[in-house]
Amino acid sequence: SSIFVRCDYNGNMYVRMLMNEVFGEENFRNEIALRKVNYQGTNVQGRFNPAHDLLYFYNREENRNTFNVIFKERGREAKWVNAISPKENKRQNVIYVNKRSFIAPKDHHWRFSQAKFNKLYNEGRIRIKESYEYIDVFGNKEIGVPEYLESELTPADSNWTDISGYSFAWDFSTENSEILLKRVIESTSNEGDLVMDFFLGSGTTTAVAHKLGRKWLGVEMGEHFYTVVLPRMKKVLAGEKSGISKEVRWQGGGFFKYHELEQYEDTLRKAR
What we know:
The chain is of the alpha+beta class. The chain contains six helices and 15 strands.
């Protein structure tokens, strides 16, 4: 099993020591840096403006084989690039994109093999720019030329400031972003595994876990369960398209149950 706990600079030393005591110092794996939303502006008197939060990751030794390597952008700006090359991959004169065929111009060739084009297209990194006129393999004129989104990937390290740490889709002050929770869940679980959030907050953990095909359990005692978490999870089941939905091609489906646990005082009050 694995556990992730998020905190800021106010509580980092206390959280780390407490987790060492509870989960074992030998099970500490990483202190991960998260991008912090700057509420304080640029003028912070007498000190540097805090720019990151922390995510502590603990994992039991016998469960280290459940750790999955995940990838992130190498760090340079992603840009759309013409998929035609005068030099590379000279044998590749014809490619098919979304059932449309494209033949490269004279003395030009496609940068990648058909298999690579298929992979890029499935990742959403191929688009057809409708401003060029080309001839397909059947001699019919086609408007458009494939371009690909240039984006090299590298194994993720403990610097996660490349993605947004917070989101504001549900008007919740400490709403974690879905892309952040996707990285957490995918790195330490597989489809069908159980994900649990002891302080559910805005419901990001359960929303992402559901979209990723995990079993999940969330615990929350605030009134916002009825105004935020419950409506959010109903929309997830209905196939809403926010967060990571487009990336994972979420179409909706599934079900969940929720139960109310009364506090001891409530039980006594009702028994009178």
